[in-house]
Structure formats: structure tokens, C-alpha cells
Amino acid sequence: MQQQERYVRLGLFVLVSGSLIVVVLGALAWRSWFQPTFMFETYFDQSIAGLEIGAQVNFRGVPLGHVTEILTSAAAYERDVPIDRRRDYIVVRVKASESEEEAAQMQEEIQTLIERGLRAQTQLAGVTGQQYLELDFMAPHKYPSLPFEWTPKYTYLPSAPSVAGEIIAKAQSFLASLDDADIRKLGRNLNTLIADLNAKVHELPVAQLSADMEEVLSEARSVLKRVDHALEAAPIDETLAKAHSSANQLDRLVRRLDEVATRVDAMLGDNQYDIRVTVQDLRTTADNLRELSETIKRDPAAVLFGGPPEKVQLPVSKR
Asked: Model-level pTM?
């Protein structure tokens, strides 16, 4: 008797659990069946490899729905059309999940949006190679609707080629427009340009320029050594006289540096040879030497003592 009661209880439990599962699944199915949706389809006249069923559909980055079907126009609309007259488009159907008000509004305004340039375009999702569908406004005259002879099952939305596909198509068109004569002419022009550049490089008097710079720098080192030697060994009067002489030599040296810098600037303008760093160093050296020359002329003692001597305080006699 007890065993029979356990069987009854088990049967009731299974029956109640099954009923609850059926009710939950029915509620979910009822919700999905009666949820407002807007269906539309678009056609592509090129490969859409990477776009799969279930792919995200966005409107300017905002999730709008997902792809529900991908098939050819031959299978969807052109079964009775001869092969040589088929369009062979790729038909992509989209289910947009919206509220009842949004679905009704989109159904009402879709034609106006299409006239304003609303187009569907495949986009790459990161670096995975998978694609999704992006809706955005584009120039309607640049991306017109594809021609077809059937009545679409759902609202038709024109498409635009993907960015990568458009670039490839333009490159192919450019290459196809070139003939052998153009390619040979382009090759000759490139060879002539390379030969001219080599000739200009060989024309540069690099050796003479290096010799002039070395001579100027050698003279600068010699003058500085003589100044140091005079400051260390000569008496004050003799040192001041040599300082004036060194200042004159520095003036001549500065003028030579300016001449070399001018020649280098002319070479840069004519030959486009990049030695700007060397010219900058020469100009810095010339400025430093000019400043030293002016200091020696203005105050020779400052070179020796590093500044004017301190005032001597005479003792005050007491009366």
C-alpha cells in the first residue's frame, strides 16, 4: 500500500513539473512570436565572405537586430529564370527587434530613409575576419539600388559595397586601364629619376667641403691654444696686446666661418643634401667665437681675472 502511494506521489510530481516546464516554454515562445519585429532584405553584387546567419546588425553603431537568412537570388527569386539572365545577387534578410511603436515607425518611414541615402554595408568586426551589417546614410547617387525584376518578400533596403571591396575594385579598375605602353613609360621615368638623383649626389663637392671645415676648425683650435698660452705665460701688458691681436684673428676666423656656412646653405638649396646638423654646429661655433672676440675687445682683463677687480678700501687716517 505504501509502495503504491509512493508511485502516486512520484507521478504527481512528474506531472506538475512537466506542466510547469510546458508553461514556461510556452510563455517564452508566445513572447517571441508576438514580439514586434521588422523584417527587411538587402542584396549584394559581390562576395560577403565572413557574414554569417546570426551576425549583428547595427544602425550607426546601435544594435538593431541580426541576420536571419543568407541565400542567392537564384534560389530565392530566379528559379524559373534562364541562367544567362539571372542576377546572381546575394540576398541577406534581417530581423530587427523593436518595440511595436518603433517597428511601425520604421515600416512607415523606410522609403523616406532610403531616399535620403540609408544603405546597408558589411563591416569587419575587429581582427577576427568576421563581418556584421552596418546601416548608415550615404550618398544615394553614388550607391543606387541594384536592378532586379522580382517582388521582394520583405522591405528592400539598398546596399553599398564594403570599404575593402571598393578599394580592391578601384585597384583592379586602375590596373585594367593600364596598357603595356603606360607601364613601359612609367618604368623609363623611374629609371631617369634614379639616374638624375645619382648624378646629383656625385656632383656634390663633399671632399672639398670637408677639407674647408677641417681647415677652419684647425685654425680655431690654433687660435684658442695661442690665447691660452698667452694668458698663462705672458705678462699682463703683453697678454693684453696679444689679446687684441687674438681678437682680430678671431674676427677673421668668424668671417671665414660665415663664408663656409653660406656655401653650405647654397649647396643645401641646390642639391638637397642633408648636412644641416654640421651647419648648425658651425654657426654655434661662430657665435661663441664672436662673443669671445667682443669680450676681449671690450674688457681684456675680464679674460684674465674673470671679472672686474674688487674695489680696494683705503685705510682712513685718524686725527
From this structure: 0.47
